[in-house]
Amino acid sequence: MLEVENTVRGVLRDVLGLNEARAAAFTEATPLFGALPELDSLAVAGVLTEIEDRLGILIEDDEVDGEMLETFGALTRFAASKALK
Amino acid sequence: MISYYDWPGGREAMLRFGPATGPVVVAALPLFEEANRTRAFVVTVLRELAGRGIAGALPDLPGTGESLVPTSEVSIATMREAFAAVPGDYTIAIRSGTLLDAGERKARWHLAPQSGADLTRELDRIRTLGGGSDFGGNAISEALLAELADAMPAEAEISSRPISALWRRAEPDNDPVLAALLADDIAAWVRRCEG
């Protein structure tokens, strides 16, 4: 789970161009979609595809909703549910 | 330096780097959004190559960059035809630029090649998440999407250097250190090919 969390953190840092300190400060409750100006719909597509590549998982577009993108914790849990099954 | 090249469908602009003699390396950017994200990086690679005595060219293909042809009217076939008409001995291509890498060349060098099927999947995702009308601001014809479905990169030497996904950055970024390393690789490859 920690490995998935670090991967998701790294993806957000790299795709959104966040500095190390800002990415490191993300906690489970940190809001994402709607709260990070960098995270528009095009960036969401990049984040999801990069998570797929780094974790070797496949995310279907109909699984993508506001809930999984709401917080850092929600996105990490979603990625973990795919990667760790 | 800004220059031009002619292809059977007209004339387009290109950036030209390095010496006027010797082998020329022609570069292909990825299609659509990733072109914006990698342009500065590829220009840096070509400048570094010029610093190593090797000439480079970065053409605007029809429907891209300064081209007056609307993106919605181009096809993979016309972009390949235009790329093939750019004078040069070697090619380098990144991501879906490898699908456009055409023409008589001595050899080709690819970085992180992407198949048409993988790009199609990303485009579908971008359209879905963006609300369904266009592809992140790009109008792309059904005909081009059909061409993409089974488009495959040309045969090439593939870079084995580990790289971060510069082409997924939400805001275009550059990586001068990596660009210099890749220019070393490409210069050594050209010299090897030239014997």
Give your account of this protein's structure.
The complex is a heterodimer of chains A (about 80) and B (about 200). The model of chain A has no long low-confidence stretch (mean pLDDT about 90). In chain A, about 55% of the residues lie in helices and about 0% in strands. Chain A has helices spanning about 1-15, 20-25, 40-55, 70-85. In chain B, a hairpin with a 2-residue loop joins strand 1 and strand 2 (about 10-15). Chain B has a single domain (about 1-195), classed as 3-Layer(aba) Sandwich (Rossmann fold). Chain B has about 200 residues and is α/β, with parallel strands linked by helices.
List the helices and strands and how they pair.
The complex is a heterodimer of chains A (85) and B (195).
Chain A: H1 2-16, H2 20-24, H3 41-55, H4 72-83
Chain B: E1 2-7, E2 10-17, E3 24-28, H1 33-51, E4 55-59, H2 76-85, E5 90-94, E6 107-111, H3 116-129, H4 142-149, E7 157-158, H5 176-194
Parallel strand pairs in B: 3-4, 3-5, 5-6, 6-7
Antiparallel strand pairs in B: 1-2, 2-4
Helix pairs in contact in B: 1-5, 3-4
Helix content of chain A: 55-70%
- Percent helix among the residues of chain B? 25-40%
CATH architecture of chain B: 3-Layer(aba) Sandwich
CATH superfamily of chain B: Alpha/Beta hydrolase fold, catalytic domain
> How would you sum up the global shape of chain B?
globular
Class per helix and strand makeup of chain B = alpha/beta
Round the Cα radius of gyration of chain A to an integer and report it. Answer: 11 Å
Compute the separation of the termini of chain A in Å.
11 Å
Overall number of strands of chain A: 0
| Stretches with pLDDT under 50, minimum 5 residues of chain B | none
Mean pLDDT of chain A: 92
Secondary structure: number of strands of chain B: 7
- Taken as a percent bin, the fraction of beta residues of chain B is 15-25%
Distance between the termini of chain B: 29 Å
How many domain modules of chain B?
1
Counted by DSSP, the helix tally of chain A is 4
The largest inter-chain interface, given as chain pair and residues per side, is: A-B, 19 and 18 residues
Under CATH, the topology of chain B can be stated as Rossmann fold
Question: Low-confidence parts of chain A lasting 5 or more residues at pLDDT below 50?
Answer: none
Listing every helix as H and every strand as E from the N terminus to the C terminus, the arrangement of chain A reads HHHH
Q: Please give the CATH class of chain B.
A: Alpha Beta
